[in-house]
Structure formats: structure tokens, C-alpha cells
Amino acid sequence: AVTLPIALTDGKWHHVCVTWSTRDGVWEAYQDGVKKGSGQNLSAWHPITPGGIFILGQEQDTMGGRYDITQSFLGELSDLQFWSRVLTANEIHTQATCGGHLVGDVMSWSEEQVELHGGLTELPFEPCH
């Protein structure tokens, strides 16, 4: 596990990108297109296997359960993307500054079936328009 060196407490929209390579465990964290931190040996050679469930906005105390309402994310999320490769620093900056819009080849927010639980609401959002 890694604690990301990112702060999102000003009530404004931010672009966040985290890269990770299973080959060597190298990770980088970007906020608004600027690299904020990096490290290595994060689960090196432990690829993410298919068939799992990705839970967003809720910390789980056991695999797939024991959710605590006090540990829930409170805020808004949009345009989550996953790629099968590490994006370059230039690609990340272009995404963050609305110079282009890459669509994830593993998962794309606009294409995936998202289940909402706990009174969540889906709203339209165009970050670059």
C-alpha cells in the first residue's frame, strides 16, 4: 500500500492520475498534470487478475465487505479511466489541462456499467467544456 502525496481539500475539481507498473512496481502520482510523488517495489510482479470487483469511494475492512459509513468518500468523481500501459508524463499533462482526451483501453467511465449504492446520484459532467 502507498499513501499518495495528493491533497484534494479545496472544494475544486482536480485531475488525479496514478501510474503503476507490475513489472517493477514503479508508481507515480500526479495532481493536475504535475508529478507529486513516486516510488518503487509496489507489488512488483503481482499483476491484477481479471474477474474482480473495483470498489470506488468506500474503504473495505475485509475483502468485499465490512464497510464503515465513516470511511466513505464524500464528494464528486468523474471520468475514471484505466489503461493497460503506463501513460507518459506528457499524456497525463495533456489530459489534466484539457489538451486532449484519452479513453482507457481497460476501462472507460463512459462505457462501463456503474452501480450506484447508498443514495448516490449520477449527474452529467463535462470537465473540459
TrEMBL record:
<keyword id="KW-0325">Glycoprotein</keyword>
<dbReference type="Pfam" id="PF00354">
    <property type="entry name" value="Pentaxin"/>
</dbReference>
<feature type="domain" description="Pentraxin (PTX)">
    <location>
        <begin position="1"/>
        <end position="128"/>
    </location>
</feature>
<dbReference type="InterPro" id="IPR030476">
    <property type="entry name" value="Pentaxin_CS"/>
</dbReference>
<keyword id="KW-0106">Calcium</keyword>
<dbReference type="InterPro" id="IPR051360">
    <property type="entry name" value="Neuronal_Pentraxin_Related"/>
</dbReference>
<keyword id="KW-1015">Disulfide bond</keyword>
<protein>
    <recommendedName>
        <fullName>Pentraxin (PTX) domain-containing protein</fullName>
    </recommendedName>
</protein>
<keyword id="KW-0479">Metal-binding</keyword>
<dbReference type="InterPro" id="IPR013320">
    <property type="entry name" value="ConA-like_dom_sf"/>
</dbReference>
<dbReference type="InterPro" id="IPR001759">
    <property type="entry name" value="PTX_dom"/>
</dbReference>
